[in-house]
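Exercise 7. Given the encoded structure of a 293-residue chain, write a plausible sequence.
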């Protein structure tokens, strides 16, 4: 019996979406401390991954709280003297290459192809050399302080914002509240409030507010929601007199467009939803409070 063909793009996208559902978009982290490895994912031999595979393995590492940047196949782990623990699940990555083929005229053409293969993180494997394992990055108190006017603005929106030492920023849909690491662990206040703006844009999507989650309910909508939140972050930062990190936001948005296999029209749809979110936030937050300070 022939095994069913795997939809590589769907499987890759689903892995990334799993990280969103876990509250772990790991490629944006302007604070110190990490539950997972902050570095670029690399192969067993130290060669770095590229393209969509970076996004995939970052996402899986964040969702599973892996600390090691090293990934390898079952055979590679065995060759290194390691053994994958029973019950551990692999991550699917993509291999891109080409082959040559003659067409009907006898002309040789280069044909691109893609295939998937499975890898495990070093944290899933026992018995590897010590250098394959890493400890999480501890949060560092950098002394970054709150801005009183911005604090008043965000408080006025009515969003419930929790702060703990957990080094993750996310919106908890089930509990309808935002989680933030302490501002003192951020490299600067702009990074803190930009991150909060991103999560507050997510917050507007609840059923009691703009009900985006209800209207974009299929699984692929999680990736679309990340586009909305990142554009919302840029718009709200501009409204509040903060400087958005356009370079990072551009890379973030480009990554999600690739993950979704969407064309640029997704940007326009996401921008429309983001504007609705920012209009609501500004109505609730009374931006005049910020200008008056």
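Solution.
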């Amino acid at each position: 019996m022939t095994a069913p063909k795997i939809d590589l793009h769907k499987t890759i996208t689903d892995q990334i979406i799993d990280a969103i559902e876990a509250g772990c978009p790991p490629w944006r982290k302007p604070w110190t401390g990490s539950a997972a490895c902050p570095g670029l994912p690399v192969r067993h031999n130290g060669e770095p991954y590229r393209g969509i595979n970076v996004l995939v393995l970052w996402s899986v590492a964040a969702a599973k709280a892996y600390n090691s940047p090293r990934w390898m196949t079952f055979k590679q782990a065995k060759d290194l003297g390691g053994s994958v623990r029973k019950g551990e699940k692999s991550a699917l990555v993509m291999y891109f290459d080409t082959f040559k083929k003659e067409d009907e005229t006898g002309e040789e053409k280069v044909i691109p192809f893609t295939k998937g293969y499975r890898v495990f993180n070093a944290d899933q494997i026992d018995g590897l050399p010590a250098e394959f394992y890493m400890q999480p990055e501890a949060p560092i108190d950098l002394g970054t302080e709150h801005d009183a006017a911005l604090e008043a603005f965000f408080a006025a929106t009515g969003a419930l914002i929790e702060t703990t030492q957990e080094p993750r920023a996310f919106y908890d849909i089930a509990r309808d509240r935002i989680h933030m690491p302490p501002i003192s662990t951020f490299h600067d206040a702009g990074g803190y409030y930009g991150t909060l703006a991103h999560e507050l844009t997510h917050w507007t999507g609840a059923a009691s507010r703009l009900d985006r989650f209800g209207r974009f309910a299929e699984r692929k909508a999680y990736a679309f929601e990340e586009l909305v939140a990142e554009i919302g972050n840029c718009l709200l930062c501009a409204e509040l007199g903060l400087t958005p990190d356009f370079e990072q936001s551009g890379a973030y948005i480009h990554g999600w467009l690739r993950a979704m296999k969407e064309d640029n029209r997704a940007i326009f749809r996401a921008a429309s939803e983001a504007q609705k979110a920012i209009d609501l936030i500004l109505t609730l937050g009374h931006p005049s409070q910020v200008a008056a300070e």
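Remark. The first helix runs from residue 8 to 21. Students should compare their own answers with the one above.
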